[in-house]
Design brief:
Layout: H1 3-16, H2 20-31, H3 36-42, H4 49-88, E1 104-105, H5 107-121, E2 125-126, E3 132-133, H6 135-138, H7 150-153, E4 158-161, E5 167-170, H8 176-184, E6 189-198, E7 209-219, H9 224-239, E8 246-253, E9 256-267, E10 274-275, E11 280-290, H10 292-297, E12 306-313, H11 314-322, H12 335-341, E13 343-344
Parallel strand pairs: 2-6
Antiparallel strand pairs: 1-13, 3-5, 4-5, 6-7, 7-12, 8-9, 9-10, 9-11, 11-12
This protein binds phenylalanine (PHE).
């Protein structure tokens, strides 16, 4: 067979190879140790110098052309394989979600989203802080010095002591986000901070991890009337009632002065709680005007700015709104419970489209 014939037959094989394995077989048959081109190379030794020079050059050119054809075919096959895969694995994202969609949104996630929607509409941004806090943000800056009795009430989870003797802790409330926000931003400040909180406590109405939402407004003029209005608007929107009576009871928190606990009216008819009806009261949150010491710790001048803060149990308002009796079930990941109390994943709460 002449070199030209050999080249033709190899290139025909290359063109015929329909996948990478077939192409590799063609390569081995031509360029492998015992391949057709390699065998011809071995005959060069027996040739005259003149002949060897001519044949050697021709064989090397042939080798290059074959290698080139192999590489080109390989690229083409890879592209074809990718296109075939893309076509086979194509997903039509415009199709509606499957009706048998089993997963549900956890009631706490639902309520979290509802709260963000309502306060978002009132002009509040969402702020965040770490779960692992230091003493300064969780206590000191909130006007709770080391010997303050409020520290005992918090049932704090502490980490092991560091070299300098200080201990990190799991935040016992979302109030440290007040400090972090004030240190990072200039008034006017209007934020809520939903998030996890931790206390060493467990019974029907307490779990070691629970959720709170903090609220903070700081500017030059905000007063107690604004606090009452914001909370009233929130309660009506959240519980989806035309009106709800509110009772502001004098209370005490180290970080607010004056401090108030807030109750809303409800009825217990038929063993079911109905918010906004009846003459019973339910406590739902703690609030007050931000203490001057706290404003100072947040890096601002309490003679120039003032404001209010509140803290509410997300799990608690979730139980009240959706009639869920036992808090502990929130964290047990029981599928039957989730299917009963969960929300459809495709229903995103909005004020315009309905919260729940
Ligand atoms: N941090 C308080 C608590 O966890 C709630 C609160 C927040 C009260 C802000 C007043 C102002 O009990």
């Amino acid at each position: 067979m002449s070199l030209a014939q050999l080249e033709q037959s190899i290139l025909a094989e290359v063109a015929k190879a329909s996948d990478e394995a077939a192409l590799e077989a063609v390569r081995v048959a031509a360029l492998g140790k015992k391949g057709s081109i390699s065998e011809r190379m071995k005959t060069l030794g027996a040739m005259s110098p003149e002949e060897r020079k001519e044949q050697g050059a021709a064989l090397n050119l042939l080798k290059d052309r074959v290698a080139e054809a192999l590489a080109a075919r390989k690229g083409l096959l890879a592209e074809e394989a990718l296109n075939a895969r893309l076509a086979a694995e194509r997903i039509d994202v415009t199709l509606p979600a499957r009706a048998e969609l089993k997963g549900t949104v956890h009631p706490v996630s639902q309520v979290w989203e509802e709260v963000v929607q309502i306060f978002g509409d009132l002009g509040f941004a969402v702020a965040e802080g770490p779960h692992i806090e230091d003493d300064f943000h969780n206590f000191d800056a909130l006007n709770i010095p080391p010997e303050h009795p409020a520290r005992q009430e918090h049932d704090t989870f502490f980490f092991n002591e560091k070299q300098d003797g200080s201990r990190m802790l799991l935040r016992t409330h979302t109030s440290p986000v007040q400090i972090r926000t004030m240190l990072a931003e200039k008034p006017p400040i209007r934020i809520i901070a939903p998030g996890r909180t931790f206390r060493c406590d467990s019974d029907m109405t307490h779990t070691p991890m629970f959720n709170q939402v903090e609220g903070l407004v700081i500017d030059e003029k905000t007063h107690l009337g604004n606090l009452k209005w914001v909370l009233h608007e929130f309660c009506k929107a959240f519980f989806e009632v035309d009106d709800v009576k509110m009772r502001f009871r004098a209370s005490h928190f180290p970080f607010t002065e004056p401090s108030m606990e807030v109750d809303i009216n409800c009825s217990w008819e038929g063993g079911q709680v109905k918010i906004g009806q009846g003459d019973s009261w339910l406590e739902i949150l703690g609030s007050g005007m931000v203490h001057p010491n706290v404003i100072r710790a947040g890096g601002h001048d309490p003679d120039k700015v003032q404001g209010f803060a509140f803290g509410m149990g997300l799990d608690r308002i979730c139980m009240l709104k959706y009639g869920i009796p036992d808090l502990r079930a929130f964290f047990e990941a029981d599928l039957r419970w989730l299917r009963h109390y969960g929300f459809r994943a495709v229903n995103v709460p909005t004020l315009a489209g309905g919260l729940s």
